[in-house]
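Hi C.,

You asked whether I'd gotten around to modeling the 317-residue construct. I have! Everything is below, sequence then structure, no commentary in between.
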Amino acid sequence: MEGNKDVKKYQFPPPISWSHPWLMFCHGRDLQRQTFFSISEDRYYTRIIPTMRNKDIHCSTNGCLVIEDNGSHDYFLLDLVSMEIIQLPPVEFKYELCELWRSPSNSNCHIWFMNNDFLMSCQLGDHEYVKKEIQFEDEEFLVEDEEFLVEDDMMYEKSILSAVVIESKIYALLLGGFQLVVGDLENSKIRFRKLTKKPLPLPGPQRTMTCSAYLIDSHKELFLVQEIISNPFYSCDEVMDFEVFRFDHSINEWVETLNIGERSLFLTNQDGKCYDVMDSGIKRNSIYFLKSQDRHLYVFDIKDRSISISLPCSNVI
């Protein structure tokens, strides 16, 4: 009987406060084990949750995951608090961005998938997605200024890098000069209009560096995070620096900042999030990030620009 209790215990979610950031590593045969690391508690929990075996996680909010089955390619939500599984309509289109807006306990919970041409969204219980065409107010979406050129001497502004939803508005970050646009979700079509008056220059020499960008919402305040990486064609693929910008609505421009206050930013392969630090044990004014094929946790201090490294789950192989 004791053995059965232990088996059941490993199938239950860890006792983590989902209001604070946490890491999850899938490992073992067919990725059958999940190790959850609480950053605020500096403690990890290993579980074997059959529902998560051999699955891809596309995004998460407050302990709820949007998951794709690698075999059937079905999509569903998994609530790690209640362990409830909520099936989603079939995803039969290509997308670049996936977002879970609000947790399933909220009656206005939405799941949306987005590419440069359409936004597909659904609420819990829907059998199909609502499709909205994406349009841009400006006819020309090509940056011609030499200062902003990249490969092939051009950069198309219509390519959406990142997006966040605030109330009934969707804000998107464009590849061309990291320009910010906004559209109304309540309309039948999403018609983006520019907010930024001018493009933001790319950091560093482009032949030896590349850059990832994240648009992050913190209590309706918008941040742009540039992750500056050495170009793998010229050297090892290494994170070299970060630059953080606030969007100043009074001048409609990105303004660089070295102080985000009692908050910290967390970056994943899919998106970025901001958390209030308070007494959580999380380092303030910092950026937490991971590297692909790497189990270490990295922390970048925004003010002094130093990077510290830790290995939170030494048992994970």
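If it helps when you're writing up: The two ends are 30 Å apart (CA to CA).

Thanks,
B.
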